[in-house]
Amino acid sequence: RKEVEQDPGPFNVPEGATVAFNCTYSNSASQSFFWYRQDCRKEPKLLMSVYSSGNEDGRFTAQLNRASQYISLLIRDSKLSDSATYLCVVNRNNDMRFGAGTRLTVKP
Amino acid sequence: GAVVSQHPSRVICKSGTSVKIECRSLDFQATTMFWYRQFPKKSLMLMATSNEGSKATYEQGVEKDKFLINHASLTLSTLTVTSAHPEDSSFYICSARDHAGVPTDTQYFGPGTRLTVL
Q: Inter-chain contact B105–A96, Cβ cutoff 8 Å?
């Protein structure tokens, strides 16, 4: 079983749609969690950290469920510029493990 | 945020040659740098953790004699792919951890180096 699993997609949605990504992790000792965004042929860039209490940054909401070892990312009012691959990242003792990513395409 | 650079951004080489990739932290000191590899449509895979002034720690399955890592200063780590073969063609990305005043798990990524071995 992979340490971090994501639905690879692709998710093709119209502008303005709400889309949700899920991620599960296998190591219950994982300490911190992130969502990164990666554009084609570019490096990953931190989108947001994920906390148990849930956190929101504009149109983006991240949620963590430690009991279920589950992380989510919700994007509201999708923009064309949101098209990218979204990587779920799990950290334990400064060892970061990446999911394979979920590809999102937002269409006009 | 902190800036990490990589050089070269792209390299094409013949099979059997060696390729050196540089990773630099431009505005902070990085005692720890990480080297990742990413194949098309796959996740980033950690290859090794590079610590300034000491030997790198390699992940299982990564040949330390093939992927030579040197972290001679607080702002520079290099990855040398020795005797490269076509199966080494990949996107190599480094990241650096800034220990000063930020959460210890904050990593900043370089722009990546695309290696193509013919």
A: yes
One-letter amino acid at B78 equals T
CB B35 within 8 A of CB B20: no
- Match 């220990």 to its residue by tokens: B99
The residue count of chain B comes to 118
Written as tens digits, the pLDDT of chain A (108 aa) is 678 999 888 999 999 999 999 999 999 888 889 999 999 888 899 899 898 888 999 999 999 999 999 999 999 999 999 999 999 999 887 778 899 899 999 999
Nearest Cα neighbor of B91 from B54, B39, B13, B34 is: B39
**Residue A38 · residue A47 · CB < 8 Å:** no
How far apart are alpha carbons A38 and A11 in whole angstroms? Answer: 15
Q: How far is A94 from chain B (nearest CA, A)?
A: 6
CA nearest neighbour of B91 among B15, B1, B6, B31: B6
Look-up of token digits 């931190």 = A46
Neighbouring residues of A57: CB distance < 8 A, sequence distance ≥ 6: A48
